[in-house]
Automatic annotation (TrEMBL), chains A, B, C, D:
UniProt KW Hydrolase keyword: yes
Any single Pfam family the record assigns to this protein: ACT
Record key words, sorted: Hydrolase, One-carbon metabolism, Purine biosynthesis
Active site annotation, chain numbering: D229
Database matches in PROSITE patterns: ACT
GO molecular function terms attached to this record: formyltetrahydrofolate deformylase activity
Source species: Bradyrhizobium zhanjiangense
Coiled coil (UniProt feature): none
InterPro entries: ACT-like_dom_sf (IPR045865), ACT_dom (IPR002912), Formyl-FH4-Hydrolase_C (IPR041729), Formyl_transf_N (IPR002376), Formyl_transf_N_sf (IPR036477), PurU (IPR004810), PurU_ACT (IPR044074)
Protein name: Formyltetrahydrofolate deformylase
Keyword ATP-binding assigned: no
Job description of the protein: Catalyzes the hydrolysis of 10-formyltetrahydrofolate (formyl-FH4) to formate and tetrahydrofolate (FH4).
Length: 286, 286, 286, 286
């Protein structure tokens, strides 16, 4: 008999014995390691790991956590452990382009995205999304102008706090978060940038790509930081284009890339597969 | 009975009747169209085409060219026609990294690259390339310093002129051509840039890519222009990288991308598949 | 002033002068070629072309068609011409897996798929698709057993005839069409096979792929023929998998491949970019 | 101060405590884990791991091995430990197609392939490879007919034994090894199959691919087993083709895929990244 899985993630300064200490603590708590990834950044001497485990016999999460806290303390760890079945709460921010939203909703409905959707916030009214079944999802229409930006962001933040949102997804939100809100959402806000960063930043990247005559276009999912377009990259992908492709074709092809890059990033985050490493990410996906 | 193939390429302002006029001229010269590509750039109203044809019965290249010159004149064409079997003369410029050179030589030997190698120029002595069979290829060791750059480039240019070089390939040459030489080689000098332009320009792009934490790295083959890293892009490709990859891994993976991107670009150029379109290229490859 | 575009497609035995005759007919009808693709199959000596054109001045489609019919007759062509803006009528057949349906509906709503949806037929009741907005789309619930197959197919065929359906899309329909129905829908019925054909045929290909330990999985869009899994291939794509991937992971990754492969195939068909060449296809996409 | 790296690989029946026991043994031997991968096959209940470590202070490989042998015994492990810098001995078997050979030699010379080449065996004479620098590599010309096959294989086996060959690479060898030799080389003989298995088996797969009209072609590196084309797959890759591609074009594109797929497989094997899992492989590459 064994219990449901847990996900343990941690990072700490590297030194010999970390794995031995962690594995011993798990073993003594009757835990069985099911999947384990680790990475040792030789440049910064930092150590990162993600361990999926379950308990043999009865659940002993509390016992393990208590014992692990002591080990973690000695190793100066940042760490977290949570039941794998726990469903993080997502808040999706979206503007009028809804292809990423459609994809996230579809994957949420099929169970591919094991999260709860705590709400959708848009600067466009709910009619914009008439073809989507939003019947069970709280929707907040929060229009924004340069004058009302700080109030609007305060309203977003209130939603985040009230609903205990774990992850904010900018699913082509098209608005730049203030440095203030970006900082408050550090490490739990994912944006999809419609370009292969560091390629074309700023507005209309597909038109820039067309102007430059590139032969591949791409998209980038990254954590949001106050420094626009410079947040830690989670995932990128590309597709081939040719001289035949007009800017509209690039936009169309781009939609397919964006939705698959964003949904990969979101599901990796949900499954505890991403750990921040300064301005970069460690992604334990294979 | 039919003759060997010819390649006709042209560009001109777009207007109705171009294809009819060209096809009629070919037909009346007893030519049979084997492959045809065209592209109509609606932004600039320019028309581009590449036609491969042979003659039914006896060769009539001269007759066709004479007739076509009149048609071309009326349509304000830039055009060229040449036997497909004609082997362009390549000059390969290389520094100490020889992976692109190795690939080009291999493909030249197997006949995959239907060109003649008019020579290799390097700023490193021939011993650097001891493992390559250069027995039948003229090799010029032309070292260069900031003081001797103009003389060295004059020597390169003399090689180009003396040997009637059709295409100069910068196969990781690592030297920046002067604006003067770049201009003289306009449209017939291909460089391989070890980055997915417009991503990381300048020196050590793989180290830049590592620092930024990108998840894909790439390479770009482009025509050389006086404006470094801004020449018309011919081909690009990418490969996936992860947090595990050190800068050296990126360099290693990059070598594979570079050689395949460069050799595609060179063989398309040789086969008359690339037509310049301002700062972009039209590549007729499928 | 110029008119909307038309798409002309044709195939015929190859001989010199085809392009000249076609281009002349277009020019004399005041048509302007906007895009042109051709292919000469040297094995079968067959010639294939797709030409997009519009008229300079007033529309002259009727005049052109009359003139072209004579040319086409002389060259033993199979041909068709239609306004590009004409929206083909699609019938989507679907079983309980709705990811391809979701994608097609989304792309139809955004206008990316320029077709009309004449109906959806499923062997599952409409409740299965409760989250989709089917308010404006005729839905036929046509359950099927081995006993009722011929009646059910007769009902499908009636829908095809009554609604003048141009293209039947098997969007993970999971039922094998009878040879009879397959024959009647020849060249206008596209299936998505959840494997990289000719890899794993028959049932549960992702489980077969897992059992074999492949490192890439794929999907194949093809025209339906009486010979199951052997119809002319239109498009294929793959994604990387690893030892970590369970059969369920392959199924999940497969969904993404399937929907993008199917939607490419459908949109190329709609845009007249596919011509059958015996048991193969010519796809003019770049 | 720390020593050079070691690679520990093992597989065993899964049970709680494996990682703890291994990590403890490493820690007590003053070893520092630098990189670690593990995989738990839930279908077969088998556990696989690869650990790269070095020693803090002085090298203690002997002490570790002695201690680990006891642990391994208790856990019914198959295991191996070796210095990462140890260079396996490769024997390359090649027929007249030398593109994979050229690539392996190039990567061996640049140090990208950290192995020693113990020899090249070919059924074609050394003149076939005149353009390669084989000056420091033993070359055995071992022609083969159906009559002489067993003697020729005996000669190959003698080379393997005499030179203590660790890995035999069939770099487009084009001969089928007998079941007997295949069995003796189990787990240490890699073949490159010029098709995306299980697609087109047997002879001339690119011609089969052309006949079927596929839109992607591929290659497969796999361990050789007596059951031809059915050995455990290590790596696969694909490239896009179109109706324009003749069989010769597929062969040409195939060469690029083959060499990169084979060289990845060989370098992963050399770096201890592949563990056999019945008829499949576990590849720890990211």
């Amino acid at each position: 008999m064994s219990t449901d899985s847990y996900i343990l993630t941690f990072s700490c300064p590297n030194k010999p014995g970390i794995v031995a200490a962690v594995a011993k603590t798990l073993f003594e708590a009757s835990a069985n390691i099911q999947e384990s990834h680790q990475y040792d950044d030789v440049e910064t001497n930092a150590f990162f790991a993600r361990i999926r485990f379950n308990f043999v016999g009865t659940d002993n999460a509390e016992g393990f956590s208590k014992a692990f806290a002591i080990v973690a303390d000695g190793l100066q760890m940042k760490w977290a452990v949570r039941p794998r079945a726990a469903r993080p709460k997502l808040l999706i921010l979206v503007s009028r382009f809804d292809h990423c939203l459609a994809d996230l909703l579809y994957k949420w409905r099929t169970g591919e995205l094991s999260a709860d959707i705590a709400g959708i916030v848009s600067n466009h009214p709910i009619e914009t999304f008439a073809h989507h079944d939003l019947s069970t999802i709280p929707f907040d229409y929060l229009p924004v102008t340069s004058q009302t930006k700080s109030q609007q962001e305060a309203a977003i933040w209130k939603v985040v706090e009230d609903r205990k949102v774990d992850l904010v997804v900018l699913a082509r939100y098209m608005q730049i978060l203030s440095g203030n809100l970006a900082a408050k959402l550090a490490g739990r806000c994912i944006n999809i940038h419609h370009s292969f960063l560091p390629g074309f930043k700023g507005a209309k990247p597909y038109h820039q790509a067309h102007g430059r005559g590139v032969k591949l276009i791409g998209a980038t999912a990254h954590y949001v930081t106050p420094d626009l377009d410079e947040g830690p990259i989670i995932e990128q992908d590309v597709e081939r284009v040719s001289h035949h492709d007009e800017p509209d074709d690039l936009v169309r092809k781009g939609r397919d890339i964006e939705r698959r890059v964003l949904s990969r990033a979101v599901s990796w985050h949900i499954d505890g597969r991403i750990i921040l490493n300064g301005s970069k990410t460690v992604v334990f996906k294979d």
